[in-house]
Amino acid sequence: MRTLLCSLAVVCCAAVPAWAAESLIQKQEGGSGQEIVSTAAEREALSLTIYNNNLALIKDKRRLHLPAGTSALALREVSAKIRPESALLTGGDLDLLEQNFEYDLLTPFSLLSKYVGREVTILRQHPTTGEERAEQALVLSAGNNGVVLKVGDHIETGVHGRLIFPDVPANLRDRPTLTLLVESALAGKREAELSYLSSGLSWQADYVAELNPNDDRLNLGGWVTLTNESGADYPQARLQLVAGDVHVVQDVRQESLEMMAAPTMASKARKGMVEEAMFEYHLYTLERPTTIADNQQKQVSLLQADDVACRKEFILRGQDYYYRNQAGDLGTKLDVGIEVEIQNEKEAGLGLPLPAGVVRVYKKDSSGLLQFVGEDRIEHTPDREILRLRLGTAFDVTAEKKQTSFKKIAGTGPFNYSFESSYELKVKNAKDEPVEVKVLEPLPGDWKIMNESAPHSKKTAHTASWLLKVPAKGTATLS
């Protein structure tokens, strides 16, 4: 049965598209005159606003020629994933009475399924003479499990030959089509704009950073990766991207289009897109038209910022569980994390609203070849916020920790215990230069440090922090 399905699909594709699509358009445009068809050829302008959450606002302006009175208008080349309930048609004196989204598309099997109970023609070729012979067949069944035909006085499930269909059913479309019943007071040409929401279009930001030899400056480039799985092409479209979490309900209504509020101050994201505040989001506009084809991923430059100040940190993060128990050794080799801190401000060489995405960091080796040193994901980051990138674990800087004493002071229940505990932390540095390690300890409950070998700072209600200077090829101890 699997072989039958494949054979049937090939046969229908060979027999139908050569004439069926043309016949379908002629039927919609012509003959009875019940429909006025608008294709991409009548398009005057096209713009896309793509959001973070698989949502896009499409604005399609077309030149129409309509008679006075009521007309059936078929707008072809719309998104196959349109949300028809969000569609809005504007254009002078046009009144919209009805609309239908036709998504039952012309395929070999959809065409065959529409002919269940009707006759088709089978052209069979003689295996030796090559002569073709036509037979009439009644389609009894057509579906995923195959086709059943009645040919003469017998039943066939294997189709050997080409299937010929007399016409294309009116309820099949070769492309996604929005059909509208409109009323116009006057006859003539006019411009109309169709606005609608669609899924199948998305974007994400990706960043590439290159550290300098001293790890205190970097060059940052941003890219936008666009993905089009909407079932339509968007040639020479004006592209805008919205960064921010726009709330949408499952049943999207036309009010959602009102989110395109009037923008406020705009700025240019260096060699990339123009950025501006829009409502409580940020809008990025490409200053040139671009084409986004169906089933395509496209990358567009977002920003470029050079010589941005940054700071590399070695960070050792503790755990709070061992402050409540007797623990002994807490790890003979603890990982020391490597983080890069970037201040997103103009004084540091940046100062741009950064959409959420992945930052990949590179650095040149001694021979000048670029090497990958780590990546991290950032959230939407406004101007004057701090970016922290956790890139990995240090190879030459290690630590070990142990509990040197523990005793219970007071308490009988799980929420009123008091403990007194002591710890020793050794940090080793195998590098040829000294390093500074930030030690962060999460302390549970109400706490007080009775004595210490280096002063701490209280970062939060439950976090104590130390800066430990470790000499080259040496060890530093914190008690």
Compact description:
With 479 residues, the protein is mostly beta strands.
Descriptive overview:
- With 479 residues, the protein is mainly beta.
- The chain has helices at residues 2-15, 17-29, 108-114; strands at 36-38, 43-51, 55-66, 69-76, 82-90, 95-102, 119-125, 132-143, 146-151, 154-156, 162-164, 177-184, 188-198, 201-211, 217-228, 234-243, 266-268, 274-278, 281-285, 290-292, 296-317, 337-343, 357-364, 370-378, 386-393, 397-410, 418-429, 435-442, 457-460, 463-470, 475-478.
- Among the domains are: 2-197, no CATH class; 308-344 and 386-478, Sandwich (Immunoglobulin-like).
- The protein has three helices and 31 strands.
- The strands form five sheets. Strands 14, 15, 21, 22, 23, 24, 25, 28, 29 and 30 form a ten-stranded mixed β-sheet that branches. Strands 2, 3, 5, 13, 16, 17, 18, 19 and 20 form a nine-stranded mixed β-sheet that branches. Strands 10-9-8-7-11 form a five-stranded antiparallel β-sheet.
- The protein is elongated and about 95 Å long.
- The relative contact order is 0.12.
